[in-house]
């Protein structure tokens, strides 16, 4: 039987992309668990402990080519590198490269419902289409998001003024304020309510969501992927994970029940209300098999929080970090904002097209920092010949967006921070297909428009109001970032001074 199994595997993996030799049972990634002296004994080169995961994966492409294989245990993973390859897979072969793998630790928590980890198919498509259209509709009418974003920014600015006076030369950590404002945008949109940044219940919910996913990715809970029964163990991270899941469930189910009870079809408040209308329409049409259910709504709300909070918060934090490290660029952005918007009114989305340097700066920071550097794992839903290799059905695919943004065939001096690369010689903004911080293809980020809006309004409003710098004598944080759920900058603090001109009322 073993022999037959071995033959079958050999046949299946006959023409897969090349890659480093896997360890039995552990595969390549599991090989990190093998002590280094054993690895050296078998001729493996010592690794640079300071190298980021993204650099390590990108470097492998220099040895094996832009399409290479890795094994996690006996699961085949194909890593796609560089612009041409990633575009080819996710655009030209989107029909098979758009599924998501069944990762036990995630599937136990999400039941493979919602959008982010849902399998590619009609239900995912239906739910995504509804959410996407609803998010777009928030750009308009009474649910318009712009005032909602500005409301959060007014709080940030007032708090920054207060804290900078209080903390003096020690500087202020921007993270909690920005994360609160960003998650409040999702809250307003999805749940129709905002929370104060000191609201304990809300803070706990946010921490739980991030904490829950950190546990899934960065703790012994990853072993659940190999032995799913570990999830039920009554101790350690396993128990912790179940507690987090239970607390999130209680919080969200209460809000959903409240929406059900207070639903008024003549006054739809948010995405949850709109979803309930879909459920009712489906019931009226007597479609018991339709995909809109209260259960599904629960997972969609969770997805929007998780996908929309950390990503946008870290993007803003990266932009402001680059601004303190490049004061000349900060000056130039501020001069452009002063010229186009002035100092007496808040920036609006209608200003965006007139602020090319500011936009180019935000894009350049996004290019260099790639907050979702490996996208979200994809899976091929059918065996496919791809660039001379056979990618068997069920292979996990990692689109290395980090490598796309540092691909020397499409970016000149890719490691240099240079906003001007996004401008033509007349100073107009250039659109570049090889810029893909939101991914591409069928699984492209669903919140791209919203994220761009938040990023633009937050960055311009804060730079209009304050000059940012590092505290005197404090070294900058290491720039390779911390890779957890997303790529976050290392913690840093800033000193800020209100820019002369507008009165505080104008700032707020
Ligand atoms: C997926 C980036 C903000 C919702 C993704 C993906 C990336 C990404 C790279 C994976 C694409 C793939 O798998 O190929 C970002 C960045 C953001 C951001 C850089 C902020 C700067 C948001 C926001 C929301 C959101 C604000 C929603 C409110 C989603 C969803 C998916 C996703 C639902 C899964 C799409 C699917 O599987 O069909 N995002 N995102 N994202 N993002 Fe975002």
Structure write-up:
By secondary structure, the protein is α+β, with helices and mostly antiparallel strands. It contains 17 helices and 10 strands. A 4-stranded mixed sheet has the order 1-2-6-3. Strands 4-5 form a two-stranded antiparallel sheet. It has helices spanning 2-12, 36-41, 53-64, 83-92, 104-110, 122-137, 145-167, 175-191, 200-218, 236-262, 271-284, 294-325, 327-340, 356-369, 401-404, 448-465, 504-507, and strands at 67-72, 75-80, 378-379, 384-386, 389-391, 396-399, 466-469, 482-483, 487-488, 495-498. It binds protoporphyrin IX containing FE. Protoporphyrin IX containing FE (HEM) is lined by residues 115-116, 128, 186, 303-304, 307-308, 311-312, 315, 371-372, 375-376, 399, 437-439, 443-447, 450-451, 455.
């Amino acid at each position: 039987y073993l022999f037959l199994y071995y033959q079958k595997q050999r046949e299946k993996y006959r023409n897969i992309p090349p890659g480093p030799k896997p360890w039995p049972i552990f595969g390549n990634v599991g090989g990190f668990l093998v002590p280094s002296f054993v690895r050296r004994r078998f001729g493996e080169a010592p690794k640079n402990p300071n190298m980021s995961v993204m650099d390590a994966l990108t470097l492998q492409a220099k040895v094996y080519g832009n399409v290479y294989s890795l094994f996690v245990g006996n699961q085949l993973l194909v890593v796609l590198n560089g612009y041409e390859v990633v575009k080819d897979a996710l655009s030209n072969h989107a029909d098979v490269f758009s599924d998501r793998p069944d990762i036990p630790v995630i599937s136990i928590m999400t039941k493979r419902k919602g959008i982010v980890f849902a399998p590619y198919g009609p239900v995912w498509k239906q739910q995504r289409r509804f959410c996407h259209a609803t998010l777009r509709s928030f750009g308009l009418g009474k649910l318009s998001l712009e005032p909602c974003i500005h409301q959060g920014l007014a709080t940030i600015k007032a708090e920054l003024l207060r804290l900078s006076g209080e903390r003096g030369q020690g500087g202020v950590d921007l993270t909690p304020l920005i994360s609160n404002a960003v998650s409040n945008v999702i809250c307003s949109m999805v749940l129709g309510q905002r929370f104060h940044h000191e609201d304990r219940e809300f803070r706990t919910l946010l921490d739980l969501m991030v904490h829950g996913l950190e546990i899934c990715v960065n703790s012994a809970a990853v072993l659940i992927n190999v032995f799913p029964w570990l999830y039920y163990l009554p101790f350690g991270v396993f128990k912790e994970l179940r507690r987090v899941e239970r607390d999130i469930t209680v919080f969200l189910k209460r809000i959903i029940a409240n929406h059900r009870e207070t639903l008024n079809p003549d006054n739809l408040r948010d995405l949850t209300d709109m979803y309930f209308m879909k459920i009712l329409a489906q019931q009226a049409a007597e479609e018991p098999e339709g995909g809109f259910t209260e259960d599904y709504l629960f997972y969609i709300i969770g997805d929007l929080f998780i996908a929309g909070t950390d990503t946008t918060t870290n993007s803003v934090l990266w932009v402001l970090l680059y601004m303190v490290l490049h004061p000349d660029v900060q000056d130039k952005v501020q001069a452009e904002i002063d010229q186009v918007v002035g100092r007496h009114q808040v920036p609006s989305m209608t200003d965006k097209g007139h602020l090319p340097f500011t936009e180019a700066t935000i894009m350049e920071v996004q290019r260099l920092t790639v907050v979702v550097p490996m996208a979200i794992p994809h899976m091929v839903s059918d065996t496919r010949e791809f660039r001379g290799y056979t990618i068997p059905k069920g292979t996990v695919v990692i689109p290395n967006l980090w490598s796309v943004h540092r691909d020397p065939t499409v970016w000149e001096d890719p490691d240099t921070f240079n906003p001007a690369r996004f401008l033509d010689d007349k100073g107009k903004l250039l659109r570049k297909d090889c810029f893909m911080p939101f991914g591409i293809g069928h699984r492209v980020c669903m919140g791209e428009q919203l994220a761009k809006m938040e990023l633009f309004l937050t960055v311009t409003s804060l730079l209009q109001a304050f000059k940012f710098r590092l505290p005197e004598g404090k070294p900058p944080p290491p720039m390779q970032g911390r890779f957890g759920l997303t790529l976050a900058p290392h913690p840093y603090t800033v000193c800020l001074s209100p820019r002369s001109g507008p009165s505080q009322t104008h700032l707020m």
